[in-house]
Amino acid sequence: MKLLFRQRFFSWFDSYDVFDEDGRTVYTVQGKLAWGHRLEIYDAQGRHLGTVKQEVLTFLPRFRLYVGERLVGEVWKEFTFFRPSFKMDVRGWHIAGDILEWDYYIEDAMGRRVAGLSKQLFKLTDTYVLEIGNPEDALYVLMAALAIDAAKCSSDN
């Protein structure tokens, strides 16, 4: 399964549209007014599915992931000198990426690839491609990608 998510050009808060390979809207993401980033995820019919909330007053960016109101994990930036690194506590997965922070992959505890995340360069707004092995993992992968994008946004400011 492949998803493309693109930040909306005219938006006061982080807002994204998420499309499948055929260009159909699968999810919409709306940024909400809050201390730190708060991104709410909706399906194509407008039903709330999940939330990515930034924890405030932390040294490095840290995000909690919720499906409905249930906490399902966290993603946080780790302190490193040479290459950016993120950790995640979601379904026993771990995340790694390249030095330039443009490409990531998620693996399960057995080392099998769950998803690949890559940023498309030379676009007016942040645009990512998510390649997901199991469609049931799509919401969790999307939440991890949103948390990483928000963390990069926080460290750029």
From TrEMBL:
<comment type="similarity">
    <text>Belongs to the LOR family.</text>
</comment>
<dbReference type="InterPro" id="IPR007612">
    <property type="entry name" value="LOR"/>
</dbReference>
<dbReference type="InterPro" id="IPR025659">
    <property type="entry name" value="Tubby-like_C"/>
</dbReference>
<dbReference type="Pfam" id="PF04525">
    <property type="entry name" value="LOR"/>
</dbReference>
<protein>
    <submittedName>
        <fullName>LURP-one-related family protein</fullName>
    </submittedName>
</protein>
<dbReference type="InterPro" id="IPR038595">
    <property type="entry name" value="LOR_sf"/>
</dbReference>
